[in-house]
Design goal:
The chain is of the alpha+beta class and 294 residues long. The chain has 8 helices and 10 strands. It is elongated, with a radius of gyration of 28 Å.
């Protein structure tokens, strides 16, 4: 009886192994079919979970990441291309799960992890977005950590056939008064840091709290925002050179602002209902002007 059970057990094991092998081949076949005809690009993928704070050198040396290929449409714009050169001296910003594609921001300077920034980001499901803008495009360097900004995108116009700039989605008439299409990309975005000065509730609060000059020290045009991961990809796709930041009060409530009519006949100051940017109720009559002068 025991011999018979052993045989049955062995047969079951063999059948299970064959089924697993067949399933693996089937899945690989589906992947090959899905990728057929698509351009494949290299990415670096996490092979085993990487704990927060793990040095990049250790990750590379122990094989915790490996090369893989994905269709060009699925490759993140910020994917790491050369870990050895791009991640030297950095550590994992948070726990990285297996099979995750390595992107810019997964590894940061050890000092960033020590400040508590990563804990703050993890609580809100946010990541950092850092870029440098000139004085005109970054609110005259008036920004401080903890402020909020609206992000506008200034995009070139294409002609009616779209031949002037194939990437430009907006067609316009030659008589249009506008030279660019400017649209709201995001509203009420949190400024996490200016240069290396953090918000008062992170890092060395004494260095920034009550001292606006501290936020302007170093490079006041180097701005770090706290945003969801998808927002990083979208902002980079728009192009950093096309960004414009508008400082808003903390009480600002986002409201959908539709695109401009680039072919309108009248500019606002030529329209009796839009003489000021503050709406028709803000138009001052001659009588009110006279009363104000008394």
């Amino acid at each position: 009886m025991n011999s018979r059970r052993t045989v049955i057990l062995l047969v079951a094991i063999v059948i299970g192994a064959l089924a697993a092998f067949g399933l693996l081949n089937y899945v690989r076949g589906l992947e090959d079919s899905a990728y057929e005809g698509q351009q494949l690009l290299e990415v670096w993928v996490v092979t085993e979970p990487i704990p927060r704070g793990t040095p990049a050198e250790q990750v590379i040396a122990t094989g915790l990441i490996a090369k893989s290929e994905v269709p060009v449409d699925f490759r993140p714009a910020t994917a790491i291309q050369d870990p050895t050169s791009e991640l030297t001296g950095l550590v994992a910003i948070t726990d990285l799960p297996a099979n995750a594609v390595l992107v810019t921001g997964n590894f940061v300077a050890p000092s960033v992890v020590a400040t508590g920034v990563t804990d703050r980001l993890a609580e809100k499901g946010m990541v950092t977005l850092t870029f440098s803008l000139d004085q005109v495009r970054s609110a005259a360097y008036l920004l401080e950590p903890g402020d909020y900004v609206n992000i506008l995108a200034e995009l070139p116009l294409g002609d009616e056939e779209g031949t002037a700039d194939p990437a430009a989605p907006v067609a316009f008439e030659e008589s249009s008064q506008y030279s660019s299409d400017v649209r709201y990309l995001y509203q009420r975005v949190e400024v996490l840091a200016i240069d290396k000065a953090l918000t008062a509730d992170l890092g060395d609060a004494a260095a920034t709290e009550g001292d606006p000059a501290a936020a302007a020290a170093g490079n006041p045009g180097m701005i770090t925002l706290a945003v969801p991961p998808e927002a990083v990809q979208r902002v980079l796709a728009i192009g950093l050179n096309n960004l414009y930041l508008s400082l808003v009060p903390s009480s600002f409530q986002p409201v959908a602002i539709p695109p401009l009519d680039l072919n309108e006949d009248l500019l606002p100051g030529e329209d009796a209902t839009r003489l000021t940017p503050y709406g028709p109720d803000a138009v001052v009559t001659d009588q009110e002007t006279a009363n104000a002068g008394e």
